[in-house]
Amino acid sequence: MRKIALSLKNISKSFDGQKALDQASFEVRWGEVHALLGENGAGKSTLMNVVCGLYAADDGGVFINEEKVNISSPAEAAGLSVGMVHQHFKLIEPFTVSENLMLSCGSQLKVKSLAEIARLASSAGDKIGFKILTDARVGDLSVAERQRIEIIKLTLLGADILILDEPTAVLTDEESTAVLSLLRHLASQGRAVVLITHRLDEVTGYADKVTVMRVGKTVVNGSAVEGMTSARLAEAMVGNTVDFDTTKQSPKEDAERAVRLELRNLCVYREDKSAIVDNLNLSVRAGEIMGVAGVGGNGQTEISEAIMGLRDDISGNIILDHRDVTGVSIGQRRQLGLRTVPADRFGYALLSDFRAYENLALTDVPLNVYGSYWRLSRNKMKQNAHAMFSVKQITGGNPTTRTRLLSGGNAQKLLLARELDKDASVLVAHSPTRGLDVRAHQAVHKSILGAVHNDTACLLISEDLDEVLQLSTRICVISRGGLSGPYSKDEIDRARIGELMAGHV
What we know:
This protein is of the alpha/beta class. It has 17 helices and 20 strands. A 6-stranded mixed beta sheet has the order 6-7-8-3-9-10, with helices on both faces. A hairpin with a 5-residue loop joins strand 11 and strand 12. The termini are far apart.
């Protein structure tokens, strides 16, 4: 039997009086990929952040090679050969790969030139099976390539215990396969790999062992993956049987319904005045979900930002309920019934240091719902938030919890609760279930479907093909800033979508 690389025993941790970890335990052995599974807010990332020195445990112990250690900082974790690739990469986009690596590793490796760090990085890449473009600007790299840079960074620093937090959350199927195969390769070289994920097929396809957490506790501890099914894993995560069929309430195509969102010859420009979105035409009707499928970086974010009113570098027209809102303020668009779920919820929609009830109230403050701007009723805000938390099943915190302490799934449910609290004419949902667990995934879909059944027009922009195929009334495919379609669900399948994504019209 392989020796234990990392062991956590009876770890407890609380934030703002809320227990995030409750006597949680975990262990990974050398030479294995160990999946850490659980709902959003179950405590997975918190547990691993204790290992990496980002959080100090209130109770319990951390053991490496069966010896108890005290890890109070990321530097101490690195000194013990522990490294973590977080969901949000720590890379500077205008800098080259070599420059980023010099900033991260140069002093520790005592490297004095970019040429030397480039040579070391290339050598490290060769050892784990991929080429690294050291002169490339990080901002020009794909998400998968940036992730590889983060892994290279850890290997240069000598990390043998590798922790990856949702490494495939924003990757295509092909990219995900490449990353997961790399993790298997790293384990085959003797490293211990911890894979934090929500994707059950990744667990059954690539992991040796699995640990499942629920509400801060360990409920399955190091079980062999062999013989496990997705249904069994999902049941362990949520505590009851999960229905994977999200299509039972899918809206039906109806050409007679009114057009609520229309894009006419929309172009969005780069700094050099070239078009990243080129002459795009699209209409979305009341009570339908128009899906936009495509690999990230083909103009999806720019379309979403243009509709939201965040881009000035555009031409063409944006029509909401027959009113041209091109050049109209964000606030005025909201008054007309535009609601948005951006891909970066903390970048555009939620204030992480505000409390949950404050985030829920943000959009209603200008409407004097809670009194005048100078005399807001916080009690009324909290009462509304308590009701929302109950109805939307937002867990892992309460209305006074700072939003940054909510899990990704609960933060997303908070956002949807706010955006769909009032009548919504148009909902733009960009990657609404990215990084969410099975139950949170279902809750988000339920909220979107509920709005659509109340005649909201939904533009669903997603890199998750299953999501697009399951929910959409009609489907478009985006490639290099241009759209193909729309197609009815009878006219298109995964294979054809793949061809269109690759530009094979």
